Amino acid sequence: MKHSPRETMIAPQTARPEPLLVVRGLSVTFATDQGPLKALDAVDLTLAPGETLAVVGESGSGKSVLSLALMGLLPPTAKIEADALTFDGRDLTGLREPDFRTLRGTAMSMIFQEPATALNPVRRIGDQIVEAIRLHEDIPAPKARARAIEALAATGIPAPAERAGAFPHQLSGGMRQRALIAMALVHRPRLLIADEPTTALDVTVQAQILDLIRDLARETGTATLFITHDMGVVAEMADRVSVFYAGRLVETAPAPALFSSPEHPYTVGLLGSMPQMNARGAPMLPIRGTVPDPRLMPPGCHFHPRCPFAAGACRTDRPALREIRPGQASACHLAPLIETLEARP
Amino acid sequence: MPGRLAHRLLVSIFVLLGVLLVGFLMLQVMPADPAAAIAGAQGTDAEIETIRRHLGLDKPVMVQFALYLSRVVQGDLGQSIINNASVFTEITRAAGPTLELMCAAMIWSLPLGLSLGITAALRRGGILDRVVMAISVAGVSIPVFWVGLLLVQLAASTRAFPIQGRGGAIWTIDGLPHVILPATALGLILLGPVARMTRTTLSDALNADHVRTARAKGAGPARVVLGHALRTALLPIITLVGLQVGALMGGAVVTETIFAWPGVGRLAVNAITTGDYPMAQGAILFLALAFIVVNIAVDILSELADPRLRSRT
Fold first, then answer.
1. How confident is the model over A225-247, as pLDDT tens digits?
2. Interface touch A101/B307, C-beta < 8 Å
3. Is B123 at the interface with chain A, CB within 8 A?
4. pTM of this prediction?
5. For helices A125-136 and A173-184, angle between their N-to-C axes, nearest 10 degrees
6. Which residues contact B139 (CB under 8 A, 6 or more apart)?
7. Exposed, middle or buried: residue A26 (CB in 10 Å: 0-12, 13-18, 19+)?
8. Candidate from A135, A167, A169 with C-beta closest to B219
9. Which of A112, A263, B167, B224 could link B174 by a cystine bridge, Cβ 3.0 to 4.6 Å?
10. How many other β-carbons are positioned within 10 Å of the β-carbon of residue B246?
11. Do A120 and B218 touch (CB under 8 A)?
């Protein structure tokens, strides 16, 4: 599969002169004992300053690998190739680790899925935030401490000065995630990568955390890359959505367009799998089958074995990402779906 | 934490009682008859009988144990039946050299074991990792007495180090060369297990979520490994060291005997071989006491290393 998947470049919906993040043709391959394993296969992504992009996909779709690749946190066994990978005007592909380190936590930061384990269990919350501050700013400890408590207060943690002295196990899951958000935003990054930040939380807390991320991101002008598998979260948070399947980008669209007229059968399936998106009385449409083994990817479109509409070319040719409507692109031979399917006998 | 400590101390009392009982019974079943030993080769049966009565050896075993216990509680460990020296004095005199030897063994093997383990964890699967693991397997499986005898032979042929006895306090110029060989032999007991445990726990910790968070903050490799990963990996290492101190004391008995080091271990061995049972019991009691103290220290250190333990009682 050594052909270029792109025929058309997708322009960001609102044409801003300088996108914050540009990813083109990013592939990540892991060297494993069973041979190379391609976790990301030539994916594209653009993110404007202040924008919220949701990256959606099942586990194994490569969305977490994407976030780690952007942060430069992949293990050395991962081989990263990209036609372009620029962040804030800087080329990240050739960036040396010490230079990358100065970006992490300052210009780009990340929050994780499991607040229970993402904090160091043996160090106090406040000390961990102070560390994050002083790694990049040469300020005296008491001043950093005051900043840390301020940051905790901004996330709505009650009694922040006391909580700063607590160990992670003394806080609830929601509080820990707030602390992690405080730590991630302490340097007002330009990009926040949120990797399923509410998945491990109680439903009641999830909404609070989503509100908090949105409000703080708006306040600091931070662009957010929101990784999730939950279409409800997408509807709540995203300006734009990129759908990943088996290491490939299959569809990208403004959030309203994606929900009203999805242009990839996989997206249709994702939306169909979400109960409240169905019309009343309509049956739920789960996607049949499971994500293929990354070592045994089917030829052609990775989704064709599970696709109800798959036809000849789907089994042989990798579909290129094509612009269907302004701002909406789909990697499906059959897109636009409605016209194609109606034209079928 | 005070509650935990009190609980620990209470348990320790029972452990000590157990040690006293086992030590007492072990010497009961020893084939040597202390009374005969004191009477010497020319002693008549009547003389032996008198000595036996004098020592209380004619009384029932449980009565002997009760008498022994009441004396120990009063701090009276009895006298050597060989040279009439006070057991308590002899043991306090030998305790210093034993502690010196154990400290000298730990002072090189702990940092080296940690460093080897860290190196292996960072280069997992690499050549360095395999070398370190080979060293640690060797450290675990080669018996101390063999290393000790080898070192003695080596030193004897090269005359690089004194091989017998103690030349004074180990921090003095006279004392230091004497401790090097025994400390080398003894430290090997700790080296392998510590290296292995460090490698395992640190490898796990390096993959932990919070270490990824630290890297995402922009922390450099040294801070990530030492400040975050090793900090959380420390707990099982501390526990292991606590347990290994038991092995270290067993090793000290052997090492002291090989290198004629005037410590409690050698005292115990000499006492047992000469049938000097009060002395042997005293030495065993001391070693058990040391083990208990070390374990309480380990408990306290563990709680310092991991705040999650502090909230439990």
1. 999 988 888 998 899 999 999 88
2. no
3. no
4. 0.80
5. 10
6. B188, B189, B191, B192, B193, B195
7. buried
8. A135
9. B167
10. 15
11. no
